[in-house]
Amino acid sequence: MLIKNPRGWELPESAATPEALFRDRRSVLAGLGLGAIGAAAAAFAPPAHAATGPADPSAKLYPVKRNAKYVTDRPLTAEKNAASWNNFYEYQQAATDITDDAAKLKIRPWEVKITGLVDKPLTFAIDDLLAKMPLEERVYRHRCVETWSMIVPWTGFPLKALVDLAKPTSAAKYVKLVTFLNKDMAPGQRQFWWPWPYTEGLTIEEATHELTFLATGVYGHPAPPQHGAPLRLAVPWKYGFKAVKSIVEISFVAERPRTFWETYQPKEYGFWANVNPGVAHPRWSQATERPLDTSGRVPTLMYNGYGEFVASLYTGNTDPRLFM
Asked: What is the DSSP string of 53-68?
């Protein structure tokens, strides 16, 4: 007899919304109270706070089938809240509504370079890359180091699929991910005290973990600019500043890359950034968080609720900054 132990992010099949109901907006709206519409029906509505501009040529790819393996025990954050509460320092230096500012981000044409310790460097137009990748939707927790949180349905593909395509050599120990650099398109990049371009990094083991995701869409449609279109990282067990936005280069390197926040303020932000409620930021506690849809606070979970699946990545690691 097969006995399955559910994972920490999984709900029983009986608790999941049936696919037919999920895709039928009228059935959902008829079956839900008004207070739940923002959380449950956002996937069907037109993009909230979407920037104006040319139609995204990838729009025909959405929505895609949700992977029922990746769910949470909390409802989706209303899209209007998730779309208007963003950290994107290229446009604003605070978590706020940057929809209009981020409209300056031109996401076509867009190329992604694969460089470094690989068999052959590659460059993909974003739409060609999407055509090669196995798109799916995953519901993930997102926990910001500033102690707010949200539950988001990302569309995208596992970073491992791109790693497999890149064929890194055995010398590659880390993956470096880099945001665009264009001061005309991103006024914040004119501020010389920030170490532009935004750079993030993962170990090769983190990069190839099943949870590590490259997001291209959200709430059943292409991601709007303020979410880091057209390609951003989602690593749900880490603080949100690891989720580098608007990626133009993915490089395989032998040495640990120096990341944006680690460079700017190494006493407060380290390389690892794993969520731990017991390790405070130097200026505030991480014990609780505020979900965007509420005014109250809830306890923060170790590794943001994904601990039983990622803790083994850090066995034997004695770096005191593992959680910051």
From this structure: SSPPTTGGG-S--B-T
